[in-house]
Specification:
The structure is a single chain. By secondary structure, the protein is α+β, with helices and mostly antiparallel strands. It is built from nine helices and eleven strands. It has helices spanning 33-49, 52-58, 60-73, 134-156, 158-166, 179-200, 204-213, 219-226, 238-242, and strands spanning 5-8, 11-14, 93-98, 106-110, 119-125, 248-257, 260-268, 283-285, 295-300, 303-312, 323-330. A six-stranded antiparallel sheet has the order 6-7-9-10-11-8, covered by helices on one side. It has a three-stranded mixed sheet with strand order 3-5-4. It has a two-stranded antiparallel ribbon with strand order 1-2. Helix 4 (134-156) packs across helix 5 and helix 6 packs across helix 8. The model has no long low-confidence stretch (mean pLDDT 91).
Length: 331
């Protein structure tokens, strides 16, 4: 909704270009002409009664600071020309950093008369540190590439539809509640991995591992649809996940969590250094007391997992103790 608004004098209205805003997905739409009119009335009433323009001006320094840090940490390092090969105009790719957003990101766009005229947005929550946002930002941009392809494949490619439908897991990923939504995610994530590989020397083996651990078991197959990638077996051993042979498992620690015994060991990687940006966050926790780049072998019941600490989760609204992890099941 936000990217479809324009301010005329003292009130907001919806732009004429509403094809994306009112687009139906599987028979329903988030916004309709009816509920958008009701929302606009409430928005304009709120804007006037709270004197929001004054609030915005009084906090201009805050917004400028976040804009500058985001530009320095992330935006200025993005290869926008990469997107032109897929029909997007690099000059029309933009970011909204919102201090009132949740921890989720959103991709959205305003259709143009041609793909070159389409204006693409990534809407992201504000943070104290934007340095780890690169895959987050690229993911939201590539929705504009991936969604139209996924929509076509989902209706015309039975195997792709099966992959998408089979991956729906309302417990693990309640926001991805249908096969079509999973289809969007699959193709978008495949193009995100391609960007990370071609522009940031991303380790494809580790990137595939992270996606599979996140609940996308067919990511290699989808990646192969957009490239000439040869499907390779993804191992589930510590050495194959990390790509190293030499490591030392440390002393055992344990904790009884509501009658469930959880044990963990820190893993000494020697001279090998973990690059958090190579991994995708799949979990947040405050149990292990780990630091950025540390790796742990965790046992819960009879199952073993590899935990990689990606940094503090405080910027996502968690406490200072909470950490972001990329988690891999082990055999």
């Amino acid at each position: 909704m936000a990217i479809h608004l324009e301010k005329l004098e003292n009130s907001y209205s919806i732009v004429d270009n509403t094809d994306y805003l009112f687009k139906e997905l599987e028979g329903t739409a988030r916004w309709t002409p009816e509920n958008s009119v009701e929302f606009l009335e409430l928005l304009n009433d709120f804007y006037l009664k709270t004197n929001f323009s004054r609030f915005f001006r009084e906090n201009a320094e805050y917004y400028a600071d976040h804009s500058e840090r985001f530009a320095n940490d992330i935006y200025n390092s993005i290869n926008f020309q990469w997107f032109s090969q897929y029909g997007l105009n690099p000059d029309n790719i933009r970011v909204v950093v919102s201090p009132s957003s949740s921890s989720n990101g959103y991709g959205g766009w305003l259709y143009g008369e041609s793909p070159n005229d389409t204006i693409v947005y990534a809407a992201l929550p504000s943070a104290t540190d934007y340095s780890g946002y690169i895959s987050f930002v690229i993911h939201e941009f590539t929705h504009a590439i991936g969604n139209p392809i996924a929509e076509e494949w989902y209706t015309q490619n039975e195997e792709f539809k099966r992959w998408s439908d089979d991956s729906v897991d309302l417990t693990l990923m309640p926001n991805y509640s249908s096969g079509m939504v999973m289809a969007f995610e699959y193709v978008t994530r495949a193009y995100t991995l391609l960007y990370l590989y071609e522009n940031m020397n991303g380790n494809m083996y580790q990137l595939f591992h992270s996606e599979i651990a996140s609940g996308f078991p067919y990511i290699q197959q989808v990646f192969a649809l957009i490239t000439d990638h040869e499907i390779v077996e993804i191992g589930t051993e510590i050495s194959t996940i990390l790509g190293i042979e030499d490591y030392v498992i440390g002393d055992e620690h344990s904790f009884n969590l509501r009658g469930r015994l959880i044990k963990w060991h820190f893993i000494d990687l020697g001279d090998y250094e973990i690059m958090p940006e190579d991994y995708i966050q799949t979990e947040v926790g405050d149990l292990f007391g780990s630091q950025t780049g540390q790796v742990l072998l965790v046992t819960m019941d009879d199952s073993k997992f590899l935990y990689i600490d990606l940094g503090s989760a405080q910027h996502q609204g968690w406490s200072s103790r909470h950490r972001m992890y990329s988690v891999f099941p082990l055999h």
